[in-house]
């Protein structure tokens, strides 16, 4: 039914093997995103309120995904041997090529002209969805369709949907989050090209995505790919850095390079774009992604601050209290000494503080209080207007006085 292109066809991706479909940068970026995610998850777990938000967020994610898959199961067309059998055969062919044993559920969804496909997962089941216009544009048994199905199976094989949930905190970080997701797509394009065993068909499928179903297949692939090298500058760089997909012109460039297994030379990016991209967190421009992720970053920073500020404030108050208590002890001792020497209590602080007196200079309360004193039976008692009167300080002061004198 689906004629398999000869394995040594001129357009076969000569360098691709099942072992090298995932690009190395996906693995290296995974490590960074994993570390960032663990740190954020730990911070969320430490602050109970953070965990509370994570649970709420997770609940709505689960609810949304449940409704999406319910919509697919009830409204979209489930592909099988009795329904769109050619497409079903393409899926089985691709699964066999990629070594996928559990064939995912494939659905065709009417999409009002949109050309797209995606993979998702719910309750332990994998779903692949192809939009109806994309199916019409590519055909059910074409190598182009096998490329698209192979790309989506790549997401399933690489467990990208699970990673999207557990690495969500890391994926929201600017620069690294989008860069990691771009690596996903580059890897999955290789899965697709390997599954189709036809680089030209993969390129044609990308050209349909770029130029539409009508003229896409006839577009000049080399001319489109050259836009990746020729259209540079600050805004293209910023678009690339904040996008979760490699640009279509780059994807075509990368796919074309698979025909003779050569590495493409990435054209440089404007360095200022990296700086600006720092303030545009991960997410797709135009899908509300940046705003949602910006909000999440604000929440994360708020939680970290909520953890750090009380701890800092505690240390500050403690050091202030210690300094104030020392002042109180010093003043109380001076008042007692004055009473001992003069036979009467002091009338003002100036009696005991100042050059040549018991305390050379009036101590200043670090919390901004002022000191008042009263004479009691057991001796002078100094009270701070802010910190109040610490009974332990007086006891300690008394101990020091009776021991010292
Ligand atoms: Zn993808």
Explain this structure:
- With 405 residues, the protein is an alpha+beta fold.
- The protein folds into two domains: 24-287, no CATH class; 319-404, Pantoate--beta-alanine Ligase, Chain: A,domain 2, CATH 3.30.1300.
- Helices cover 59% and strands 8% of the residues.
- It contains 15 helices and six strands.
- It has helices at residues 24-46, 48-75, 85-98, 132-138, 143-157, 160-166, 168-171, 176-196, 199-215, 221-230, 234-242, 248-257, 271-277, 289-342, 391-404, and strands spanning 77-78, 105-109, 117-122, 125-131, 371-376, 379-384.
- It has a four-stranded mixed sheet, sandwiched between helices.
- Helix 1 (24-46) crosses helix 8.
- 34% of the residues are buried.
- Mean pLDDT is 83; it is low at 1-8, 284-291 and 391-405.
- The site of zinc ion has 4 residues, from helix 5 and helix 8.
- Its cofactor is Zn(2+).
Summing up helix and strand content along with how strands pair, one would put the structural category as alpha+beta
Low-confidence stretches: 1-8, 284-291, 391-405
Task: Using the alpha-carbon principal axes, give the shape.
Answer: elongated
Number of helices: 15
Strand order in the sheet with the most strands: 1-2-4-3
What percentage of the residues does DSSP assign to strands (E)?
5-15%
Which assembly state applies to the chains in this document? single chain
Helix content: 55-70%
Can you list the ligands bound to this structure?
zinc ion
How far apart, in Å, are the first and last alpha carbons?
107 Å
Q: H/E series, N to C?
A: HHEHEEEHHHHHHHHHHHEEH
> What do the pLDDT scores average to?
83
As for the number of domains, it is: 2
Number of strands: 6
Rg measurement, Å: 35 Å
Summarize the main sheet.
4 strands, mixed
